[in-house]
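Q: Can I borrow your eye for a moment on a structure tokenisation matter? Would you mind producing a protein record, from residues through to fold? Write it directly below this note and I will take it from there.
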Amino acid sequence: MITFTSKSCPRNLDQFAYSPSIGASRGIITIWNSSLFDGSVVHINSYAITIKLLCKLDNKIIHVTNIYGPASSPHKMGFITWLMNFDTSDFDDWVLGGDFNLIRYPKNRNRPGGDQTEMNLFNEAISDLDLVDIPFSGRNYTWSNMQNDALLVKLDWIFTSASWTLSFPATFVQPLSLSLTTFHMFFILEVAFPNQKISDLKISRL
């Protein structure tokens, strides 16, 4: 994994936490710049990695959860149950995002379908955690089956705590192109820290 990060990331991204792949699922990796953030792992499992980041510019503490939800329906129930019971009592400014492999509404597909029970439970978890949905500007879908008559679905989501929207009102999701290898759209979450002229935190789905 050290070889992967050194070859695939800019040199300033020099610290990481990693959850390995299980079966056919992909692993999860969260990488950060240690000159800007002191990072420590709060939680890690097959669904997610949560990192506590202390910004060295202003001593602001944030929590970042990187999500990769299971694709099969039986395992999705376990993931949603985990999410509903996730302890966020120590999190104030919190952002979580990634491939949830879930949709919230039928409109998140370009054709009829989807499991209404999964949608209801996913929305219940979002409500219970008091999360704010950060929209993907200009893009309705984040995944394609890459067929001629393509199925398009929004499986990737970014959510924040309510306090995050007050601390970091300049939070945007910048959609990029669909990947030619993973069926997913790339995106970057850009966050401007208060009193800073640049976007200090960028979270990418690559």
Remarks:
- The longest helix spans residues 116-128.
